[in-house]
Amino acid sequence: MRVRLMALSHIKGGANNSQTARNLHISRRIVNDWVKRFYEQGLDGLKEKPRSGR
Fold first, then answer.
1. CA neighbours within 13 Å on the CB side: how many for 11?
2. How many CA atoms lie within 13 A of 2 on its CB side?
3. Rounded to an integer, what distance in angstroms lies between the CA atom of residue 46 and that of residue 40?
């Protein structure tokens, strides 16, 4: 969750999603997803969701 909060901090500081992704070495799509979930669900949207272990 730390990287997700760092991404939001970069964006709040004026960086766009592409700059944030580049600075954190993650994909822009991931940053877009995190920002969207944060605006829709708040901090709960940034929590890891359970994955299937198969």
1. 18
2. 0
3. 10
pLDDT per residue, tens digit, the chain (54 aa), is 899 999 999 999 999 999 999 999 999 999 999 999 999 999 999 998 888 877
CB-based burial label for 3 (10 Å; 0-12, 13-18, 19+): middle
Residue type (1 letter), 15: A
Q: Which H, E and C letters describe 1-26, residue by residue? A: CHHHHHHHHHHHCCCCHHHHHHHHCC
Nearest to 34 by CA among 1, 13, 15, 19: 1
Place of tokens 């359970």: 50
